[in-house]
Design brief:
The protein has about 260 residues and is an alpha/beta fold. It has ten helices and nine strands. The protein has two domains: about 200 residues, Alpha-Beta Complex (2-enoyl-CoA Hydratase, Chain A, domain 1), CATH 3.90.226; about 50 residues, Lyase 2-enoyl-coa Hydratase, Chain  A, domain 2 (Orthogonal Bundle), CATH 1.10.12. The protein starts with a strand and ends in an 11-residue tail after the last helix.
Length: about 260
């Protein structure tokens, strides 16, 4: 049986590829379980300082596969709450909790949960031919996997509601213009640009990156006073770290820094 994901290990970063190209990388329980295991393995490896998530073939991820396990049948309706809670939402939680930067390279369609998985990453690059589709309403479902959380915060409630209710594809260039993603790039350049970005992040101050992720994760629920207090605490932690010491020394020595990064 072919593995539903592929992992390519580099010296300081990894690429996780959703690898069901004949299904446009639509996810099922086996694929989601494999993805969760891959994310846990990356988190546990101190030499892995950045992660790249992408899809094989013509699409990034077409969302949940509509197979027998998720369709109404003689036994009654499927338990979509269990599927979302146990698998889809765990993927989103792991992506957001990883202490390393996560880059997503969206090739082709990112639909349903696939779009949500992309938006859960830290930096999203998309091929110009790619598109994002909040497809749930097309089959009488509601956005999940964090879509109802990410969309209003990234592009505003008016656009988020329209994307969810109309379920129309959003081209990559428009997604960039709206601030949904970081950048749309020419199709032939997507792989090289995303890999170069991941390698650059892996060479950076990954201890500080982890704290930056903590700060942004907390900001949605904090008022200004609480966020300023958190910033002070995190800045104190960063200031005691080896990455800061190296950064200052390199600045004073007028040389490029060699950040030690996270140690565990």
């Amino acid at each position: 049986m072919t593995d539903p994901i592929r992992i390519d290990r580099h010296d300081t970063w990894r690429r996780i590829t959703l690898d069901r190209p004949d299904k446009l990388n639509a996810v099922n329980e086996a694929m989601l379980a494999a993805l969760l295991a891959a994310l846990d393995d990356a988190a546990a490896d101190p030499t892995c300082r950045a992660l790249l998530l992408t899809g094989a073939g013509r699409g990034f991820c077409a969302g949940q596969e509509l197979g027998p396990a998720v369709l109404p049948g003689p036994a009654g309706p499927p338990d979509l709450e269990r599927l979302a809670s146990r698998y889809h939402h765990e993927v989103v939680r792991r992506l957001r909790a990883l202490p390393i930067p996560v880059v997503c390279a969206v090739n082709g369609i990112a639909a349903g949960a696939g779009a949500s998985f992309a938006l859960a990453c830290d930096i999203v690059l998309a091929a110009r031919s790619a598109s994002f589709l909040i497809a749930f309403a097309r089959i009488g479902l509601v956005p999940d996997s964090g879509a109802s959380f990410f969309l209003p915060r990234l592009i505003g409630e008016a656009r988020a509601r329209a994307l969810a209710l109309l379920a129309e594809p959003l081209p990559a260039a428009q997604a960039e213009a709206w601030g949904l993603i970081w950048r749309a790039v020419d199709d032939p350049a997507l792989a090289a640009e995303s890999e170069a970005l991941c390698a650059k992040l892996a060479a950076g101050p990954t201890g500080a990156y982890a704290l930056i992720k903590q700060a942004f994760a907390a900001s949605a629920g904090n008022d200004l006073t609480a966020q300023l207090e958190l910033e002070a605490r995190l800045q104190g932690e960063a200031g005691r770290g080896a990455d800061f010491a190296e950064g200052v020394c390199a600045f004073l020595d007028k040389r490029p820094p060699v950040f030690p990064g996270r140690t565990g």
